[in-house]
Design a protein that fits this description.
Number of domains: 3
CATH topology of the largest domain: TIM Barrel
Number of helices: 24
Bound molecules: phosphoenolpyruvate, magnesium ion
CATH architecture of the largest domain: Alpha-Beta Barrel
Radius of gyration: 25 Å
Structural class: alpha/beta
Number of strands: 16
Shape: globular
Largest sheet: 8 strands, mixed
Strand order of the largest sheet: 1-8-7-3-4-5-6-2
Amino acid sequence: MNDLSTESVLTGTAAAPGIAIGPALRYRQPAVAGHGFRLVQAESRYRETGTAHLEIQRLDEAIAATDAAMRETEARLQAEGKGAESHIFESHRALLHHPGLYDRAVTLISKAGWRAPDAIVEAGEHQASPLGDTDNPYLKAYAANIRDVVGQVRRFLVREQTLADLLTRPSIVVADDLGLSEWMDVPRERLLGLALAAGGTTAHSMIMARSLGIPTVIGLGTAALRTLRDGVMLALDGTTGQVVVAPSEETIAHLRVVAAELAEHQAAMYRQRDLPSITRDGQHVVLLANAGTVIEAQAAREWGAAGIGSLRTELLFLGQPKLPDEEEQLALYQAIAAELPGCPVTVRTLDVGGDKHLPSFPLPRESNPFLGWRGIRIGLSQPEQILLPQLRAMLRAGADADVRIVLPMVTTVSEVREVKALLQQAHGELVAAGVRCCAVPRLGVMVEIPSAALVADCLARECDFLSIGSNDLIQYTLACDRTNQRVANLYQPLEPAVLRLIANVIEAAHRYGQRVSLCGEMASDPTLTALLIGMGVDELSCTPMALPLVRAAVRATSAAKARELAQAVLQAACLDEVQVLIHTYGPTEVEVEGEGEG
Ligand code: PEP
Ligand code: MG
């Protein structure tokens, strides 16, 4: 069966899984040149002289209208039971009222004679541009959120047609980049999928696309998308990152089968979210989730996590115009704990530095940021500003939840002793002031620097549990920047040097009766589950969406056989040998139980 279509395939990055088939609707944000606002009508930038107060009034009205629209969407989502999604609008509203944004726009209007729409766009770009030009996905996401918020204010000022106005039939939206507020008010049945030239998988917009099940491919490039006509048929696969232009009937039929299989797979995974995480021979492996947002904590609950293994507080603070104070932090920790009542929540103290930057806590320029001022080093050098308020907020949140504390980027035992003294101090202060708090909670060390792995026995004696941060442990062991594509071939979790350090940590912790969790990305890879169980890891803290597959992998594992595998792997001399052994152990494809059931 061959039709006359001449299909072609565009390849980007898969950002939200699912299949979408439908006509393209090209959406061009007016006056916004793709990734980064650039003013295209410089000659119309200036207002009439003497009208500054009117322009500022217009700006105030547009900000108030944007705020009201966001509140309305927030309330609608709350009413639909999508509490976590509604939180995104809360943080967008915080950006809307960012003093730096407003003050700069007002200065441009009053001092430089600019018109309100251009002034707010320039003020937004002033904030977003330095962040968006880095390789850091978190900063890129923050920059995208600023641009999204500013774009909405601008639309109120110039009364442009929105995507919701343009989308009159079900379509796949093709755009350079798309902020959350640009598509959130579009009726869901008309938004089949998103094909974007730019974008970052961790932008709020993409978190929401995944959460709402809107198949999305990003990073397709402006040149490729420019060739697409409005109305041309597209078949988009948000799992492989491919967009087929003018698909043949065979392609469409094939993708419809894939879509049905995906739906069945998802339903089967969901059905098994409460199955016990026990190996075939009865060993219990605790499955936890990593979280840095309320949405992730909610997803953790949805997918059956037994708690939060690592709450990356720096991500929780990302949308905030200033570093949250003790009260604000308390509210954030309580909000996360409320998503998983009765479950342990391991809160990690602030881990900025390296590739993680908080706009609310600017860091000095360093020639080796990964080896510089980051993690607990910052907390300890500014206890009054960073560590003590954070510890107090955690102790207070612990009054109503099972809060545990973990310390990032520990290099030496002395650092742990210093934190323990500060924790006692914070606790003493709260008790003396009569503030409700828990007893001093369990304190753990994140082992992610080789020095910490080598003195894991001393650390185990000093604290209550160890948590292996494999993402950083790999980069520091192999001297290989985790963000640098040029050395990505060296960044290998299965390198014997990495595995031997992990084995050392587990053995040392168990010798002192301490449990070990692993919370780097290795924990989310079901092909490594058997090896990690065989090596003795007690708890795996995964990306929430990975939980069902890791659970299936645990249930498919024989712990006894996995221990034999681990013993053999720890004798291996190189990566290839490790891979052969793992392959020989058993199939790396994990089957989901109950697949095909109704
Ligand atoms: C790690 O390094 O493995 C880890 C969990 O911390 P992060 O990825 O936040 O640096
Ligand atoms: Mg780390």
